[in-house]
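User: My instructor asked us to take a sequence, write out its structure as C-alpha cells, and then describe one feature of it. I'm not sure where to start. Here is the sequence I was given:
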Amino acid sequence: MSWASRFRIREYLRESLWVVPALGAVAGILAAAVLISIDSHVAVPSSWSYSPSTASTVLSAIVGAVAALTGFVVTVTVLVAQMASGSFSPRSMRLWYRDPVLKGSLALLIGTLAYSFSLLRRIESTFVPDLGVTLAGVLLIVGLVIFVLFLNRFVHLLRPAAVAARVAKSVRKSLDNDIANTRHLDNVFAGPLEGMTERASLTVRAARAGAVQAVDLGGIAAWAGRHDCLVVMRHSVGEFIETGDVLFEVYGNLGQADQAERALRGLVALGLERTIEQDPAFGLRVMVDVASRALSPAVNDPTTAVQVLDYLGDSLRAIGEVDRSGTSWHPGAAKRGVVVPVRRWEDFLALGVTEIREFGSTSIQVMRRMRAVLEKLLQEVRPENRAAVKAEIARLDATLAAGFSGSIDRDRADIADRQGMGGPDRLEHVERAVARRPA
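Assistant: Let's start with the prediction itself. The C-alpha cells for your sequence are:
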C-alpha cells in the first residue's frame, strides 16, 4: 500500500462519524457476552438481584432512553453544523466532524444500546444477568452526563473566538510538524528550478483531479537518493490539480519509467479539499473567511473580525518567526534531491490581511486592530520579513485614507488598538498617528 493510500485511509478514519460509534457497538456486544459469562458463574447479593420481569422492564427502558438520547445528539450535531456553516465558513465544518467528544459520545450511547439489547435477549425465567443489568443502569447515567458535557462543549464552540482559537492551534501544530519533518532532510531545495538546461528524463502527471492534501517529502527525498535523481515538484500542498497536470519532473538516468511514476504518485495524497496538516495557509484561509463573512453587509459584525484578528495575528507571528526559505537550488548544486515550491512570507501575510483590510476599510475597530497586528509583527518577525510588513502598513494607510476621506473619525481610525475600540491609548501609538496625519 502506498503512502498516499495510507494517508487517505487515516484521514477518512479521522473524518468519519460512523467508525468510532461502530466500534462502540461491537464493544457493547462483547461486554454483554463477558458480563453474561460472569453472571452465570458468580452469585450476587440479594440486593443486586432482579426478577426476570423487572430486568426486562429496566433494560427495555434503558434501550428506549438511549435510543432517544442518541437521536438528540445527532439532531444537535446537525443543527450546530448548519449554524456553523452559515455563520462562519463551510471550511470550518471539519472542526465539528473531527471532534473526538462527538465521536466518543456517539460511541458510548450506541455501545450502551447494543449492550442493553444483548442482555435483554438473554433474560430467561431461570437466568437473569444481575451484574449486567446494574452496569446498564450505570452506563445510562454516564451517557446522560456525557450528553450534558457534549451539549456544553458544542454550544461554547459556536463562538467565533473559539473557532479561531482552534484553527490557530491547528496552524501552529502544522508548522511544528513541518519543521520536525524537514529538519533532518539535507537534500531538499526550495523552488522554483532555474538554470536547468537538460530536459527532464521523466514527467509524472496526475491520474485524477484533486487538491494536494499532503506530500511525503521524506519519501520523495529517499527515492531521489536511491535513484541518484533530482525530483522537481511542480505544485505545492494546497493547490488544486487537474487530471493530466504535471506533478513531478525527474532529472537523471532512470530504468523503468512505469515503476517510477507509480512510486512517485503514491507519495502525493490528493483529496476533495485542502487540509491543515501540511498546509498552514489553509488555516489562515479559514480564519479570513470567518472574518470576511462577519464584515459582509448582511452580517455587519466587525467585533467578530477583531476577535479573528487576535488569533490571526498570533498565527502570522508564528509563521514569520520561522525561516521557511530553505536552500534554493542553483545550477552548481548536486543533481540529487528534491526541489519543492515554497510559500514566501509575503504570501502568508497577504493572505492573512488583504481581504479583511478591504472588507473592513470603513470600520474603525478593524482598522485599529489591524494596525496593532502589523506593528507587532514588525517588531517580532525575522528581519528579512519586516519589509513585507512595512509594505502592508503602507497599504493600510492608503486604504484608511480612502475609507475615511473627509470623516471626522479619521484621527481615531489611525491609532493602533489591540482591542479594536476601547483599549487604552498608548502614547507611542498616538504620536505615530499624529505623524502620519496629512498637513
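For the description part of your assignment, you could build on this observation: The chain has three domains: 3-158, 177-271, 280-331+342-436. Try explaining in your own words what that tells you about the chain.
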